[in-house]
User: What shape does this take?
Amino acid sequence: MTVTSRLEQVAERVETRRAMLSRLLDPDETTLGALLLAPAAVLLGGVIVYPVCKLLYTSFLDLSLTSGAPARFVGLANFQQMLEDPVFWQATWNTILITLITVPGALVVGLGLALLANLPFNIRWPVRLSLLIPWALPLSFAGLIFAWFFHSEYGVVNDVLNRVGLPGAIWFNSPRLAFAAICLTITWKASSFMAMIILAGLQTIPRSLYEAADVDGAGRVRQFFEITLPLLKPTIVVALIFRTIAALQTFDIPYMMTGGGPGTSTATLAMYIHQNTVSFLDLGYGSALAVVMFILSMCVTAVYLRMISGREGAR
Amino acid sequence: MKFARLASLLWCGAVLASSPAFAETQLKVYLSSQGQPAVWRKALDQFEAHNPGIKVTIELGGATSDLQAQYLNTVMSAKDSSLDVLILDVIRPAQFAAAGWLSPFAGRDLQSYLRPYAEANTVDGKVVALPAFADAMFLYYRKDLLDKYGLPPPKTWDELAIAAKKVTEGEHSQDLQGLSFQGKAIEGAVCTFLLPYWSQGKTVVEGGKLTFDRDAATKSLALWKSFAEAGVAKKNISEVATDDTRKEFQAGNVVFAVNWGYAWALSQGDGSAVVGKVGVARLPAVAGGEQSSCLGGWEWGVSAYSKHQEEAKKLAEYLSSPEVSKFMAINGSLLPTYAALYTDSEVNKAAPWFADAVPVVRTARARPVTPRYNEVSEVIRTTVNAVLAGVTTPADGAAQIENRLKRILR
Assistant: This one.
């Protein structure tokens, strides 16, 4: 072997390595795209896709840690059990009802609060702070606080009722009153969240529009419906998506206030899932219930997403 | 070079730390926050003094039996090794053993303990936990008020209702309730249901089979409902948990209370309005039935995931010993798990009524023993709560319990 041929060989090797390296350092569009997406894909796969698939798989198993028996594939048996389970139906119905009552409730109250906070005050921070506090309060604290408010003997609600000459109620002794108390608490808690998002939206509306409307002689009410509401719509839709999904997952407030009582009349789907998995260790049935909740959330999100994309298409 | 030196130093440190001369085993005991941890701490200090090289710390869990079970369920199903010795409500060993969470005490003989506890801690012939303290439900009554109206402690629930009416009407006090019991959907409500049910001679589960008697269940639910309707118990009894009963009795607002042994020491302690005015008796029976009580008490289990099995078992043995049982009886008014201690002079000085409590504990009945107890409990307690709140009738409630128990225990 001559020296030159060996040199050629080495040069060739160096060349291939450099080509590999340059492909890595300066990849074409497709490779670059894949490389850049990889971290997000791995993360999503790890924290969303894998758990959801595992949940789906578990929902087809008879897997109860209290039995000591190994997991057994049972097909749709868990879902069939659900159909015959009165507590499941009650919990699902309660969840839907809570969503239907508290989401519009919080929207109306939140909108009102946001409009108030947006008024030209001199000192705005106390108003903004009081808007922030209910939202910053942990859910379970809010539940505990309101449980005391509505307590039949020591509660402030009955005290106020008595002072104005009305009889107090045993709130948590009646399914309807207990449900009403829960909805009121959730609305109070969620309104501040709504108000904050809407307030941010309100501040993006240029003052000049209102000034022009003033010049044209449009009244306050007309201004609200013609300027404020249409320009707030995208903000409101986003707030509604967040709020609705959170409402479908309602757990903390009824858990702390009534524990689902009296009986099981104020239990929600999330509470029932928690009970089956954490208290009863029936992971199969609990997973099946969670699958139902997942589907419910997906449906609602799909509807909202359609609303958004529909609007964008019309533009 | 630097790295190598650092690594070798670390390695030396690890060897030294794990060698017997320097070893200090850390044990963690799980206790209830409401279960007098300060008194247990004193017992643990004694253990540390006798066992140099073992340090014991306490981890406090939820206030109620249900909350503790929920917490332990998550810890144990994650195979967490951080807890070594666990205090367990008497209803849990069966479930924990079935899940494989307890490390059995091979060859341990439980004959020296009261029989109900020997039974509760033996699952499929294996000793899975050791008794911590005994308990049962008792009837607490206001001795001063009963004496004032010339009434003896009632033997039946009907007598109790009449006596309660007589006292509350005589006292003309808005705040005075006739009877306080547990109507909230908590573990205590299971015993609420079972007391008059058992009193009729019925059982719920026998030999793993459901032996539910719907008529007896209807009667039991109707009895409690009638107390609320007749004004013997307060209207919001469906909101009352075990410790509410204790507090209201202690404040002097209750004539009769159904409660566990722990209420005694507190009713005779600082801040109690009824010091020296309290009597403790067996719970009444339904007319023509037998007086029965609900078996309570707590057990010491050793976690199967503990990394210090030997030391943890040693600690559990110590905590379950006659010395600690006596110490806790005197200092925490916890009923002993050894029959002889009930008549011990020092124990009787602290809690005179213990002398009469042994037959109650001996004959107290255990709640259904099944690995799926949590589900059985949930069915019963939510139904009791629903009936007391007027959501369902006693007859419908009994039917619901039967249907749902059938599905759980099939």
About this structure: The mean pLDDT of chain A is 89. The longest helix of chain A spans residues 86-117. Chain A has two domains: 3-58, 85-314.
